[in-house]
Amino acid sequence: MQVVIALIVTPEGFPLGYEVLAGNTSDKTTLRTMLGKIEAQYGKANRIWVMDRGIPTEAVLAEMRAADPPICYLVGTPKGRLSKLEKALLALPWQAVRAGVDVKLLPQEGELYVLAQSHARIHKERAMRRRKLKWLWARLKQIAAMELEREELLMKLGV
């Protein structure tokens, strides 16, 4: 079961309120309702909505941009679109926003794409890959020491 939580905070990060949405609900169906509910409860304000890439649909994002005043958001870019932006992002320089965090900013088609990298996250992912690689090397050594028929060897390597 999935639980969807919406957290409302001040610009300084202090919590104002929260909503717990029904579990086992498609994320894409919750945003439009949440936008209306928060506006009804807290009034119109200059808010920034921060969401996972699976929450908004392109139609809801278009409605947010067309609202009066426009509703600002920061949302993960779908991987398909990110690969289309890769060449333009590669050409841009990294800018430090704080110690250990760098960003690239790409304005395009009325949107501002933000590519962020955290040095701590880079180190964590490298360590995860190294652990996995060490395990794979150890497993290959185990398999190499076994006396296997061709088919058995292929099955073990496939696993």
Describe this structure in words.
- The protein has a 3-stranded antiparallel β-sheet. The chain has a two-stranded antiparallel ribbon with strand order 1-2.
- The two termini are 30 Å apart.
- It is elongated.
- With 159 residues, the chain is α+β, with helices and mostly antiparallel strands.
- A hairpin with a 2-residue loop joins β6 (101-108) and β7.
- The longest helix is centred in the C-terminal third of the chain and has 27 residues, at 119-145.
- Helices cover 43% and strands 26% of the residues.
Helices and strands in order:
Elements: E1 4-9, E2 15-21, H1 31-42, E3 48-51, H2 58-66, E4 72-75, H3 79-90, E5 95-98, E6 101-108, E7 111-118, H4 119-145, H5 150-158
Parallel strand pairs: 3-4
Antiparallel strand pairs: 1-2, 5-6, 6-7
Q: Unreliable stretches, pLDDT < 50, 5 or more residues?
A: none
Distance between the termini: 30 Å
Helix content: 40-55%
Order of helices and strands: EEHEHEHEEEHH
On the 0 to 100 scale, the average pLDDT is: 86
Shape: elongated
User: What structural class is derived from the secondary structure elements?
Assistant: alpha+beta
How much strand content do the residues show? Answer: 25-35%
> How would you sum up the major sheet?
3 strands, antiparallel
Q: Total number of β-strand segments?
A: 7
Strand order of the largest sheet: 5-6-7
Oligomer: single chain
Radius of gyration from CA coordinates: 23 Å
